[in-house]
Amino acid sequence: MALAISLASPAGAFEIFGLKFFESTDADVEVIDPLNYTVTLTVEPAPGNEDGSLEDALRTASGLIGDEEKPVSGSLGLLSKAKTDRKRLVAALFEQARYDGLVDVFIEGRDITTLQPDATFSARPVPVTIRVRPGPKYTLGRIAVSSGGIPVDPAEYGLEAGGDAGSAKVLEAEAKMFNALREDGRPFVAVTGRDIIADAATDRLEYQAALDPGPRVPFGDVYVEGAKDVDPGFIAYMTGLKAGEVFSPQELADARARLLKLGVFSSVTVKEGKAQDPDGSLPVQVEVGERKFGYYGVGATYSNTEGAGANGYVGYRNLFGRAESLRFDASVSRIGATAVSGEARETDGFDYSSSLVFKKPGVLGPDSVYIGSLEIKKEQPLAYDRQSYAATSGVEYEIDRQQTLNVTLRGEYEEITDYLGTRDYFIASLPITYTYDGRNNELNPTDGFYFQALAEPSYGFNTSTPFVKTRLDGRAYLSLTESDRLILAGRLGYGTIFGADVADIPNDRRFFAGGGGSVRGYEFQSVGPYFPGNVPPGSGFNDRFTDTPTGGLSLFEGSVEARIGITENIQVVPFLDFGTVSDELVPDFSNFKLGAGVGARYLTSFGPIRIDVGIPLDPGPRDAGYQIYAGIGQAF
């Protein structure tokens, strides 16, 4: 795979595939008549600022301080920046509930309020002094909110006597009261009056507001604009908005999310009408911009042990005018692969896979999608060789924004070779997956919880073997700082297969552990019971699979890691993984395999770029001294 890298000096930036990393955002900005300056900030002592938090807030708000290393454009540029800074610092004092505070800014000892626009400065760099007299810290005094007879308790939103009187807190509370009335089905709520009085005699901030809630209004008809090839009636149906239901801003937001999820629009706007229809309902206006429906892509990989690989896909997003999609994927790998003695095993030829996937949204309501597929696959992982042909038919249903249920009927024929020889399986299964996703970000979560439960009843027709595979997975994330510079993350997985012995269950349905998505540091599938390393002569066992894992009936695995922010975009991530696989129904908790290591993350707008180096602390016969993993997104 070719990789184009261009280096930039002296900033140390570099570019890959058109993406620039470690580059200053102002690297290419040219300043006319550059003028350098220095800044001194003096904050007079004030009650309530013993911890210095006020000075920290002022330094953060000051553009003069934040940009001190950057020149301004001449004397006029410095004077303009100083006047803007004074307003920012006064606003910062208000946010800290210091309404009597004074801010003076001096350039070369002269107060900026007395300087003319054509003033010039002789010193180089130009000295700038900021003097802040914070004044007393105010608290909330009398609170009075009228809302047309609709109960609104200001205390629920932080507005109560003696409370925080910071300007941002007060306005935030007002916005929450406003939004609460809108969420109550009142689209025409308005703030009709507001009086905020800072009483210097008592150091109290009095707040009085009048909210006109307006009536509760039902949704009316949905009108669609911008649709050319996608059926407008289908678009209105997929919003999920029903005439007669009470207005809700959240329902509008959910409607927009549903339409974007269809994949056929480049832009979607969903908004309520400006006025009610004669019948009292509120119409909804949907504006869409259609994207190109056809798409394709190709890619390539190379590894000194796995050989070369290539993949491609082609698809169409709007087959019959209702966002039906069809996508064909194909890949080939292990081209020219070589085995590393003592780690991998000898393989025969290359691996390949292909799939044809059809999706039709809206089959069981706007929050559902039908998914059917045809799949062909040949793979040669560590534990077995497998060739399979499968067909699936199922529905994914979004219960709400966090919960999803997926039910699929799967029929599969597969031929598997392992240490016992080659066997055929014809299996029907019904995997049912429930997912709860409470993470705040899918690729880079810093808070929340994720849970998934799988139950997959299966029946082998040619082997007359029924069995049920179950698995539970949970992940949790906790940020220990407001800046998300220290995040603790952990995951646990537990699985059991009921109803049959290991030898009667197809190898690909058994549990394995080890690898980048499991116990890092270990070879893929290498954690668990092994086939013995010495094959007796004439035993009939396939000696290509000596010292290979057999898989098991039960699994327990997990990970803990600390994501430590070194800079705004760079994280260092030490981690510890653990896992065990057993051929019994209950995992052998005394036989853990531990993997430890450290990783690095570069945070981008599309997700973290990740690289991990894992070391197996108890390596088996197929494990190397370390493993390197790379990808986009956190490890879990």
UniProtKB/TrEMBL annotation:
<feature type="domain" description="Bacterial surface antigen (D15)">
    <location>
        <begin position="318"/>
        <end position="636"/>
    </location>
</feature>
<dbReference type="InterPro" id="IPR039910">
    <property type="entry name" value="D15-like"/>
</dbReference>
<keyword id="KW-1134">Transmembrane beta strand</keyword>
<dbReference type="InterPro" id="IPR010827">
    <property type="entry name" value="BamA/TamA_POTRA"/>
</dbReference>
<protein>
    <submittedName>
        <fullName>BamA/TamA family outer membrane protein</fullName>
    </submittedName>
</protein>
<feature type="domain" description="POTRA">
    <location>
        <begin position="219"/>
        <end position="288"/>
    </location>
</feature>
<keyword id="KW-0472">Membrane</keyword>
<dbReference type="Pfam" id="PF01103">
    <property type="entry name" value="Omp85"/>
</dbReference>
<dbReference type="Pfam" id="PF07244">
    <property type="entry name" value="POTRA"/>
</dbReference>
<keyword id="KW-0812">Transmembrane</keyword>
<dbReference type="InterPro" id="IPR000184">
    <property type="entry name" value="Bac_surfAg_D15"/>
</dbReference>
<dbReference type="GO" id="GO:0019867">
    <property type="term" value="C:outer membrane"/>
</dbReference>
